[in-house]
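User: Let's play a game. I give you a shape written as tokens, and you guess the letters that built it. Ready? Here's round one.
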């Protein structure tokens, strides 16, 4: 039996003398792709802040003290900022836990997990491309 935290698998396709299976090699990519699904909220909020609410994006002055547009623009920018800060912060904590802390705790290599982080924006970019193609 292997050490605690180290899994030893038989010839059922997970590991063997030839090395880890394809699933084990692609696990960081799939896990980060799944993380990318809820990451669409802060990514879209950041996009909205930088396009529609650019004048109010980082204006922290109180209501009525800003000159960035109508009330709708001010309220919309507030919701977009909250989406970036709250969901972005929670997403960043999730990414650090999954891609850095868990592999380190179980003695796995961190490099494949860090490279898998490049897949996180793929779901958002796919939705944006589909919306642009469909009109």
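Assistant: Ready! My guess for every position:
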């Amino acid at each position: 039996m292997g050490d605690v935290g180290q899994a030893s698998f038989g010839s059922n396709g997970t590991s063997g003398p030839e090395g880890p299976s394809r699933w084990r090699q692609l696990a960081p990519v799939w896990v980060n792709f799944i993380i990318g699904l809820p990451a669409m909220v802060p990514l879209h909020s950041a996009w909205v802040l930088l396009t529609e609410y650019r004048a109010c994006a980082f204006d922290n002055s109180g209501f009525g003290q800003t000159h960035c547009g109508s009330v709708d623009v001010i309220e919309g920018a507030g919701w977009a900022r909250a989406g970036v800060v709250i969901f972005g912060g929670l997403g960043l904590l999730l990414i650090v836990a999954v891609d850095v802390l868990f592999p380190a705790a179980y003695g796995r290599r961190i490099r494949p997990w860090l490279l898998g982080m490049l897949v996180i924006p793929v779901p958002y970019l796919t939705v944006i491309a589909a919306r642009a193609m469909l009109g």
